[in-house]
Specification:
The protein contains five helices and twelve strands. By secondary structure, it is of the alpha+beta class. The chain starts with a strand and ends with a helix.
Length: 217
């Protein structure tokens, strides 16, 4: 059996997506490999994801697919197919857990439930930057970023999580504390909101709704 903890480090496993993918009510996914004498079994239990290949003729784990040393061609082909299944599940059923702040998580939950949009990490060089996109026109309406406080003029050391949103009346809402000028965006049309609860969720979600509306028109 292979422990997949290292592959899902800094990622969140989404149960609804596991179910949609084909996991049963016990969060177990089974798939026959190209060689029908072997079956891949992926399990999610106690917040841990594990995988194994079962030799159906012997009714036991086929351990060669989990060893790191050189193996024969037959086992190697099974291993490639097995790992392709694992990679696909991680890609489709998990998301990055870069954003740790409580308000960030509440924002993500609200956006994903309301607009059915998922975070997209587009830039390999910037793994702590992600966007939400309108699924109808492909335009993005929110940029989430983890960055040093000093980069946006906030006192103190350490990192802060922010969301950058479009706004149609920037000069009237920017106060230099709870709402700042747009980070890395046109400051005439975008604002930055620190996600450390200096602004209420109600006000934050209204700003998100407004941004979504603006890019949808």
């Amino acid at each position: 059996m292979r422990d997949l903890s290292s592959l899902v480090e800094n990622r969140v496993i989404i149960k609804d997506k596991l179910t949609a993918y084909g996991f049963n009510q016990d969060y177990v996914y089974e798939k026959l490999l190209t060689n029908p004498n072997f079956k891949a079994v992926i399990s999610y239990e106690n917040d841990a994801l594990t995988a194994r290949v079962i030799d159906l003729e012997l009714n036991e784990d086929y351990v060669l697919v989990d060893v790191k040393t050189a193996i024969g061609r037959f086992a190697a082909e099974l291993k490639v197919e097995y790992e392709s299944i694992i990679d696909d599940i991680i890609d489709k059923c998990t998301r990055s857990d870069v954003f740790k702040f409580s308000q960030s998580k509440r924002l993500m939950e609200t956006v994903e439930n309301k607009y059915k949009s998922n975070l997209e990490f587009l830039w390999e060089k910037f793994p702590k930057d992600a966007i939400y996109r309108n699924n109808n026109n492909n335009k993005w309406f929110a940029l989430l970023v983890v960055l040093e406080k000093s980069k946006i003029g906030i006192e103190g050391e350490g990192e802060i999580e922010i969301v950058v949103l479009k706004h149609d009346n920037v000069s009237n809402v920017v106060d230099g504390e709870s709402i700042l000028e747009g980070y890395h965006m046109n400051k005439k049309h975008w604002i930055t909101v620190p996600l450390d609860d200096r602004i209420s969720d109600d006000e934050l979600f209204k700003l998100v709704d407004n941004s979504y509306s603006l890019i949808s028109s």
